[in-house]
Amino acid sequence: MSLVLALTLASANAQGCSRVIQITLDFQEDSAQLESKQILRLARWLVDVRGLFQYGDADVEGVAVGNEAGKDRKELARRRADAAASALKNLLQGVPIHSSSNVYPTDFIRSSGNYAVVQLNPVNAPDCSPVPIPGFRY
Questions:
Q1: All residues at 6 or more sequence positions from 120 whose CB lies less than 8 Å from its CB, including other chains
Q2: For the chain, what is the radius of gyration of the CA atoms?
Q3: How far apart are CA 15 and CA 42, in angstroms?
Q4: 9: phi then psi, degrees, rounded to nearest 5
Q5: DSSP labels for 84-129?
Q6: What does the pLDDT look like over 2-31, one tens digit per residue?
Q7: Three-class SS of 6-43
Q8: Residues 55, 122: contact at Cβ < 8 Å?
Q9: Residue from 62, 59, 56, 55 nearest 83 by CA
Q10: For residue range 59-117, what is the model confidence (pLDDT) as tens digits?
Q11: 8 A C-beta contact, residue 34 and residue 25
Q12: For residues 83 and 125, what is the distance between their CA atoms, to the nearest angstrom?
């Protein structure tokens, strides 16, 4: 009986800890300009997730695709990250934003690769420590 309870608690904890608070913002091909429709999506999303947790910081990743990581593709990814981070900074003040950019091979990404990802990192997320199961060795 206690094993079933421990497994149930562990799975409930794991589900609570696997929550990712992120949104993907789309860009036109070869563009780093964030369209007003995407800024509006970001603003609405922030309204929805603001009450879930308190956020300590945010990560923004600008993405471009190409079979060769040429300078222009790297620059495009960086400009996308900057555009998304700027919009986030205006909408969510007081939260530090860490920005990165990457170029991925076309066969590595399922989508068109014209996007930036914004992720909020909670400071008061559920405890992700596993619930010990009596008699089980890790």
A1: 21, 22, 49, 53, 55, 58, 92, 95
A2: 19
A3: 25
A4: -65, -40
A5: HHHHHHHHSTT--EEEEEEEE-GGG-SS-S-EEEEEEEESSPPP-P
A6: 433 333 344 343 444 546 799 999 999 999
A7: HHHHHHHHHHHHCCCEEEEEECCCCCCCCCHHHHHHHH
A8: yes
A9: 62
A10: 999 999 986 556 799 999 999 999 999 999 999 999 999 999 999 888 887 778 899 99
A11: yes
A12: 28
Residue with tokens 């923004």: 60
Amino acid at 8: T
φ/ψ of residue 82, rounded to 5: -65, -40
| Tokens 């600008």, residue located | 62
- What the block records as the tokens of 70 is 């040429």
